[in-house]
Amino acid sequence: MADSSVVSVSVPQQHTLLVALNRPNQRNAITPDMDREIARVLDWFDNEPSLWVVVLTGEGDTFCAGADLKSWHASQSSDVISEQQDIASSPHGFASISRRRTSLKPIIAAVNGPAYGGGVEIILNCDLVVASTDAVFALPEVKRGVVAAQGGIPRLARVAGHQLASEMLLLGNTITALEARDKYRFINIITSPAEVLPTALALARTITSNSPDAVESTKEGLLIAQRIGNVDEAVVSHALSAASGRVWNGQNVKEGLAAFVEKRTPKWSNPAKL
Prior knowledge:
This protein is an alpha/beta fold. The chain has helices spanning 32-46, 69-77, 83-89, 118-124, 152-160, 162-171, 177-182, 196-208, 212-227, 231-239, 242-249, 251-262; strands at residues 7-13, 16-21, 53-58, 107-111, 115-116, 128-132, 136-138, 175-176, 189-191. It is globular.
């Protein structure tokens, strides 16, 4: 998978893909072309069995400033305005990440700087989030006459509760990384700017030291829990899923149990395609 002019792609360590938004002079604001390129990269990642986790970051000193408003303004100035239908029909949401629910591979956000609008919506759909002490966050859409409509509203309401989500969404004010972690609860770790990416990659190494079959099935269980409120129904749906079947019928469960008995480190195999 080669780099493009707007998205940098690398494999910095075994089983880990690193994707960097690469428009630093535009604060990594997302254009339609950039959205399509991210979709291409992540679709490839989802289908590459040797890659088990992805780390997402931004080049320069900003994680993501949201949508490129100049591009959006040009679209609004045209005769064709289709935001409602575009949002409803988008398979993966903003930047092809904010509503991406088909992938069972973990997504780690390495938030190297400020995140605004769609940038926050991206973060809210990541599984783990590492943020710089310098990072700040805002959902300022209401200040521009638009809406955080690509998954940010329900996700923030779920993790922060109605009143705190209302505070962030209706006021549109900026919050610190400490507030995002302790008050709004969508960050896992805060670290120095220089340690953001190394910390995210360390989390990825911990994940890839585990069975990829078990990791993907566990993430699926979390996604099912978000869709199904009843615990028993969620358990049954998870138990009967293809990813669960791959765990119990695959080689990695045998390897994990044998390694425990033999007191050695397990040697995991790439997961079979579902």
